[in-house]
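Example S7 (structure tokens).
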């Protein structure tokens, strides 16, 4: 399984991470995911943005980055010159403070956001691991050591998990959403946070349906 790094990626991303995880009464066999570490940063992708469901519809949350000479994905710096962390926390509170598990997850999640991690890669990795752990996904994440050309490796989802492309049809089961009625029904393609805040420990059952 080959994925790109992502900032609070959609639930479909974690469904792929959990796909090869095996559960039995006496042990868990984790899935293995390769995370693309040898590419250049790509604008307008999930690498530094995600979507949550607000009262007026899907809302984008974004991590600003420093655009410099070295834009290799492991060296891209987060731009802390604007109060994006505070804005993100306020947006999450507005969207999810009435959800069942917001108060349970928010303090730990906000501590990660406030850590001041300098590099986007490391920030994303900590958030991906946090989301996976809270969802009960057992997964070994291995950074790639060289770049693989698109179309040459099976189970390559680096470019199909993208805000401007339809997400892979993975058969996820719709979950409760705070603003479902205002949105006119279930909204797919949202950050894994939407599932965690609304369904908590039951999240795994929705992405492995």
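Recovered sequence:
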């Amino acid at each position: 399984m080959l994925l790109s790094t992502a900032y609070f990626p959609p639930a479909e991303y974690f469904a792929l991470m959990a796909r090869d995880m095996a559960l039995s009464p006496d042990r868990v066999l984790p899935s293995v995911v390769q995370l693309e570490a040898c590419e250049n940063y790509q604008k307008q992708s999930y690498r530094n943005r995600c979507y949550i469901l607000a009262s007026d519809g899907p809302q984008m949350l974004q991590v600003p980055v420093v655009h410099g000479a070295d834009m290799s994905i492991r060296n891209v710096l987060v731009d802390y010159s604007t109060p994006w962390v505070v804005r993100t926390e306020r947006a999450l509170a507005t969207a999810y403070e009435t959800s069942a598990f917001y108060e349970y997850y928010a303090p730990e999640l906000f501590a990660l956001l406030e850590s001041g991690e300098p590099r986007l890669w490391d920030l994303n990795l900590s958030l991906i691991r946090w989301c996976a752990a809270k969802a009960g996904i057992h997964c070994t994440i291995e950074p790639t050591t060289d770049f693989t050309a698109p179309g040459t490796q099976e189970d390559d989802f680096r470019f199909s998990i993208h805000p401007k492309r339809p997400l892979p049809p993975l058969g996820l089961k719709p979950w409760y959403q705070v603003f479902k009625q205002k949105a006119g029904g279930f909204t797919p393609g949202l950050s894994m946070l939407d599932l965690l805040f609304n369904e908590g420990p039951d999240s795994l059952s929705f992405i492995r349906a």
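Notes on this example. The chain has a mean pLDDT of 94.
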